[in-house]
Amino acid sequence: MSRLTASLVVDLVDKTGAKTQAIIGNMDRLKRAERDYMLADRNLRLSNRDRAMERLMMEREAADEARRQKMMLLASRIGTGVAIGGVIAAKAYTNFADLERRVNRIVVNADKGAGAIDPTIRRLQDVAAQTRTSFDDVVGGLEALVASGRSLDESLAFLPAVALTAQASGAAMNDVALTADSMSGALKVSADEMQRAFDILVAGGKAGKFELKDMAQYLPSILPAMAAMGYKGTDGLRKVVPMLQVMRNQAGSSSEAATYLGNVLN
Fold first, then answer.
1. What's the rounded Cα separation, in Å, for the pair 209 and 211?
2. Which site among 79, 146, 147, 227 is 20 to 30 Å from 174 CA-CA?
3. CA–CA separation, 173 vs 181, rounded Å?
4. How many Å apart are CA 63 and CA 86, to the nearest integer?
């Protein structure tokens, strides 16, 4: 019995002669039309704010892609040695575009409008420059603070102290950010006091075996118990840091010391 085999060849050519960007635009419109149809079928629709945010995100992505293509084209037109530099530059543009999209998502998650995106990016760039920290790490710190429930304004107010402390100590940015959130939430340390609070932790870490990076990791689980005993503000930190150092002298590791103190407090 013979077999009949059919081959389907799809020619992906826009018959209108439109350029690639126009083809992409047509595809985007088709996707949006399908999305709108499904929403309408469920008696739902996007708000004007959602549509405005969607347009902004699309325009940013188009601008990012245009920058990347421009850099790649430049790299293809010049010599090998410089071309390598051009490719590296293009990759840097792409990486920065990814970070911009992360900031967009952070701002949206913080319930801020599109108008807050560019000022937030500029603020993050300033913090990165002032603290000699990578923009990627600073974005990660903001991401951790907003994800913990802090408002965008609170997170940006905490961020300089967080970035400076992480850069100076070598502690993970996320851990330091969560420590700032815990000090504020449990001990009511304000943004104005945040740098002083971290200075207390830094000094305490240098005075014993329980180092700052250990505090950044374990304080978020210890400070609520301190707060339950009535300790507040930087005075509370001046109490808990010596306790940790005493426990560390009697324990085999910082993890055990944190567990011992947590058991005592609870």
1. 6
2. 227
3. 12
4. 18
Residue 191 DSSP one-character state: G
Please check whether residue 147 is in contact with residue 110, taking contact to mean a CB–CB distance below 8 angstroms: no
Phi, psi of 149 (to 5 degrees): 110, 0
Residue 197's SS3 state is helix
Q: Are 194 and 165 in contact (CB under 8 A)?
A: no
Residue 239 scores a pLDDT above 70: yes
Q: Is 8 left (phi over 0), alpha (psi -120 to 50) or beta?
A: beta
Residue appearing with tokens 């420059």: 129
Helices (H), 42-149: 48-77, 80-109, 117-131, 135-147
* Segment 162-195, tens digit of pLDDT: 999 998 888 889 889 999 999 999 999 999 999 9
Query: Do residues 240 and 224 make contact, with C-beta atoms less than 8 angstroms apart?
Result: no
Res 86: pLDDT: 42
Angle (nearest 5°) at CA 185 between 226 and 190: 105
93-138 pLDDT, tens digit per residue, is: 446 667 778 888 888 877 887 788 888 888 988 998 898 888 889 9
